[in-house]
Amino acid sequence: MPELPEVEVTRLSFADRIAGAQIQAVRLGKPLRWPLGCNPQGLVGHRIEAVRRRGKYLLIDLAPQGLLLMHLGMSGSVVFDDFLPPPGRHDHFELQTSHGTLRLNDPRRFGAVVYATHEDDAVARKLLGRLGVEPLGEGFDLADFQRALKARQTAIKQVLLAGEVVVGVGNIYASEALFMAGIRPTVRACQISRARAARLHAAIREVLAEAVRQGGSTLRDFSNALGETGHFQLGAQVYDRQGLPCRVCEAPIKRVVQQQRSTYYCPRCQTF
DNA sequence: CACGGATCCTGATGGC
DNA sequence: TGCCATCAGGATCCGT
Predict the structure, then answer these.
(1) Chain A, 44-103: which CBs lie within 7 Å of strand B?
(2) Looking at residue A221, what is its pLDDT?
(3) Would you list the domain boundaries of chain A?
(4) Most buried among A137, A153, A212, A219, using CB within 10 Å?
(5) pLDDT at A224
């Protein structure tokens, strides 16, 4: 479910409300992708200082020390409220705090919550160490991006999904950004001209920023920590539109499979 | 080293 | 209604 926009929208929906809260209890459900990596009871008494984001991870800063790295996987979502119904079968992590209860619901359990003592300890580095630059930050440099594409032999769609060049672009927004840039998803990254790479660089920022503005995409069940759904999917240009007319040129949208993931593109607008 | 494929898990959907 | 196959927003690991 969650790509960068959904994770950022989730963060914005509870970060201010939870800041300063004291952890009073921790509840675990079934195992997630990785173990928590600490005694859950050891978190009790810690204070939540801030909630940040790195790529598709939420970073929950704790005082006096440590942080939780939370990943929503494919099907994860978070709620934060004073009163929540009793935990359901897919609620696998919960922090009861002085400001309310933070609960992770994740049916497929590809998500994770992992404790790290510092942002650069071995645990955190294993998860965050290979991540590319933040697309909405200052570090997303055009010349660096062009050089990185020149160095990769694989299809541009896969380069975007891998997250080693730039983070946060998942299956929906990769298709959307490539459409906006007029680039065919199957083209090898190294074959993209500098001019087209510049269009893609801009398109990634535009698509992700617009998606955040629209509250993310709700394909089936995404909602932020207030229970609000996203609306970006309603205006998607190509994602999940196989056979439907392109919104620009009316040619039927095509679907191909790359690395076991669906990719959508317009055969007329995305020429090369 | 770089790439392609299998893999983790549960639920929704569509065809027969 | 039931059964089966397919697909789903991610990312790691393993073999070549």
Answers:
(1) 75, 89-90
(2) 83
(3) 4-126, 142-265
(4) A212
(5) 94
**Omega before A267 cis (within 30°)?**
no
Q: Distance (Å) from CA A222 to C1' C7? A: 17
**Third-level CATH fold of A4-126:** N-terminal domain of MutM-like DNA repair proteins (3.20.190)
C1’ C8 / CA A219, Å: 9
Q: Which residues of chain A carry a pLDDT beneath 50?
A: none
Select which of A11, A17, A56, A254 is catalytic.
A56
A2 is a catalytic site residue: yes
A153 CA → B2 C1’, Å: 9
- What's the pLDDT at A141? 96
Query: Is A3 among the residues known to form the active site?
Result: yes
Choices 1.10.8.50, 3.40.50.720, 3.30.70.120, 3.40.50.1100: CATH for A142-265: 1.10.8.50
Q: Is the CB of A110 under 7 A from strand B?
A: yes
Taking the C-alpha atoms of residue A73 and residue A240, their distance in angstroms, rounded to an integer, is 20
Instruction: Write down the pLDDT at residue A1.
Output: 62
Same topology for domains A4-126 and A142-265, yes or no? no
Query: Is residue A224's beta carbon less than 7 angstroms from any atom in nucleic acid strand C?
Result: no
